[in-house]
């Protein structure tokens, strides 16, 4: 479930001030959330400063308290080396100079627990290092050559049956999907 549907947030919230819910909608959501004690937000890198402020404001309105996040405990998860917020700043940045002067940023209420052990590529150190270098923008020639060595031509795709496929165009995706679907009918 998205934050927008969960808390009835407008999709274009970055451009406009958050409009309070009318009492009927607020009460209806409040009834659903009456036993809510913990909110877990995944992919936090995609939640911008403004959206985060609106989540707080909406929970305060629904739970009828001015306490941060309406007294709901919040855990956020994610990797800031992944997707950025759309049309907004990161949640730990101020969206304007006024906020930097007067706001008590919600982000400061959180304690960071950084996971540093690589699990997905733990058995392939050189690949893990290459991915880390990509994230930091410090790719080496060795990293580039490693990634190039893993390119598989479309003629050899059958060799790697369970691999995730990345294509350059929709036409290539369509051709591959057609080929796979045709093989299922035989």
UniProtKB/TrEMBL annotation:
Keywords: ATP-binding, DNA damage, DNA recombination, DNA repair, Helicase, Hydrolase, Nucleotide-binding. InterPro entries: DNA_helicase_pif1-like_DEAD, P-loop_NTPase, PIF1_helicase. It catalyses: ATP + H2O = ADP + phosphate + H(+). Gene3D superfamilies: P-loop containing nucleotide triphosphate hydrolases. GO terms for molecular function: 5'-3' DNA helicase activity; ATP binding; hydrolase activity. Its EC number is 5.6.2.3. SUPFAM superfamilies: P-loop containing nucleoside triphosphate hydrolases. Its cofactor is Mg(2+). Coiled coil: none annotated. It holds the Pfam family PIF1. Residues 2-130 form the DNA helicase Pif1-like DEAD-box helicase domain. One of its GO terms (biological process) is telomere maintenance. Belongs to the helicase family. PANTHER family: ATP-DEPENDENT DNA HELICASE. This is ATP-dependent DNA helicase. It comes from Rotaria magnacalcarata.
